[in-house]
Design goal:
The chain is of the alpha+beta class. It has helices at residues 15-33, 91-100, 113-120, 153-163, 183-206, 215-225, 228-245, and strands spanning 43-47, 54-57, 71-74, 80-82, 106-110, 142-143, 168-171, 175-180. The longest helix has 24 residues, at 183-206. The structure holds zinc ion.
Length: 257
């Protein structure tokens, strides 16, 4: 942890930041484990609990290479306030989404493969053909302005305007932005969005007639399937899965647990 505190006192003021970045780093590695990696593209951020801006994954690392000291603190104008490393060009995704959405503390941008395919289907509305699609209170809309980098505050604002009250937005022929109040919600939104995109695209490929639940049932499912205890369980499960994936438990190391 020494690196995180190198620029003290502006960096970590207390364990809240340290704990948050620990979890956020693990969320990056979970997303790699779930197949959402794309070289060194893809990044998540956390709102600084001390109102100094936000903590953004540093550039030039793949999702699986992110650990708790791989974040830089930037303010809402993109100025680097602390930390080591290169700032992602698409930092405005994070500043503008967190500025617009006080209900989010975490934001993620990835090029998850099925989500990217769906981002090209700009006339399609994402439907809850499986449980995962019920996560979204509003189907993530399509931002059509550009398929290029979201590298200015204006473009970041344009994406958040299209996102509206949804938990996500597709960037045409490029990728997705999702957010959440907690790191758990951000992670689940990313995983569920990818699965919902896969389900819808595979159904379309099948050519078989398909349906989805009505609005009342979707609303009910959101409450029965995704209460806080289920979100906590999912997060705990993903942490155990990551530990197994990284060889920390479940291997024959002779450790008694
Ligand atoms: Zn991108």
């Amino acid at each position: 942890m020494e690196k995180l505190f190198r620029n003290a006192p502006i960096m970590a003021k207390n364990d809240e930041v340290r704990r948050g970045l620990w979890d956020l780093a693990r969320a990056h590695r979970m997303l790699d484990m779930e197949g959402q990696n794309d070289f060194a593209w893809g990044h998540a951020s956390m709102r600084d609990p001390w109102d100094r801006g936000l903590w953004l994954k540093r550039a030039n690392l793949g999702l699986e290479e992110v650990f708790e000291d791989d974040f830089i603190l930037i303010d809402f104008d993109g100025n680097v306030m602390g930390g080591d490393g290169v700032r992602h060009l698409e930092w405005p995704i994070h500043t503008e989404t967190l500025r617009a959405r006080s209900d989010f503390n975490f934001v993620l941008h990835t090029h998850a493969p099925w989500s990217v395919l769906f981002s090209a289907c700009t006339g399609e509305i994402l439907r809850p053909y499986s449980n995962e699609g019920c996560w979204f209170t509003v189907p993530p809309p399509h931002y059509m302005g550009t398929s290029d980098l979201i590298d200015t505050p204006e473009l970041g604002r344009a994406c958040t305007e299209i996102m509206g009250k949804s938990e996500g937005v597709f960037i045409r022929n490029h990728g997705v932005i999702v957010g959440g109040r907690t790191v758990k919600d951000m992670l689940l939104a990313a995983i569920f969005l990818e699965k919902a995109c896969r389900v819808q695209l595979q159904l379309a490929m099948s050519g078989i007639k398909h349906t989805y639940p009505d609005a009342a049932e979707i609303d009910k499912k959101r409450k029965t399937i995704f209460p806080q205890r289920a979100r906590d369980n999912c997060w705990d499960y993903m942490n155990r899965k990551l530990d197994r994936h990284e060889g920390k438990v479940g291997t024959d190391k002779g450790e008694f647990r």
